[in-house]
Amino acid sequence: MPRVWSGLRPTLRYWMETEVHVYAFSVSANVLLSFFPFLIVIASITEHVLHWHGATDAIALSLNSYFPSLMDQWMWMGERNAHNGFISILSHTQFQWISVLLLLFTANGIFEPLEVALNKSWGCKTNRSYFRNQLLSLGLIFACGILAMLSTMLTAVTGWTGIPAGMTGFLAKLVFTLASLPISMFILFLVYWLLPNCKVSPVDVIPAAIFVGFLLEVLKYVNLASWVWMQRKMTMEYGVFRYSATLIIWSFFASMLILAGAEWSARKARER
């Protein structure tokens, strides 16, 4: 027990720093801004580029795995159609280029405070220029988008197996969980390795990427277990903005875990 506490104490001390909270809130605000553009872009690809309705259904499944009633009450706006109710997407017959541009602008904002935080953890002397940060962020956005599409497609494939309808939903959720966990770990690895503006050994960040990816999966189930109670409290406090507030709060917790993983990996590397 003393050894565990001695390992956790520096992380808890790190979480108490004011700057860390500033970074986490900045990331969570940009997550909120980029959430719906990302959703529209990825669903537009499945509907209007791939013409794959099963993949669109898989997107709805993945969202329900994180936010159970958000799809019903926020995304569908009280309506449903033949393909899980993506009204704002399926009502258009063309790919949504404006959503792509908005996504690139808002998602870039996620990586700016992350780079500053990781640079401080690793002791990098300077931050990247705004232009270089945007270029790297753009590359990470495309990498994350491709990996998210891969997870969605793996989930959608379960609808092609000829499995009885009663089993398809369960298997789709199982495939989504099995696919999303290693993919999220790999995304974290890319962020921890490439985002700091100094040389970072891949070996130093692999343990943190794996452990934080696992903790984020646990955080998802904490969200699911507390969803009904949380939404009741959010409705009382925030009214029509309850889902926005919920997304910011859980993004904040996720950001704190990601930042703690970066600080832990940098501290361990210095100790070695």
Could you explain how this protein is built, in words?
The two termini are 23 Å apart. Helix content is 81%, strand content 0%. The protein has one domain. The protein has 10 helices and no strands. The protein has 272 residues and is mainly alpha-helical. About 8% of the residues have low confidence.
Largest sheet: none
Total strands: the figure is: 0
Give the class from helix and strand content and strand pairing. mainly alpha
How many distinct helices? 10
Low-confidence stretches: 74-87, 160-167
Quickly describe the structure:
With 272 residues, the chain is mainly alpha-helical. It has ten helices and no strands.
Task: Name the descriptors.
about 270 residues, mainly alpha
Topology:
Layout: H1 2-15, H2 18-49, H3 53-66, H4 70-75, H5 87-90, H6 97-122, H7 130-156, H8 165-194, H9 202-238, H10 242-271
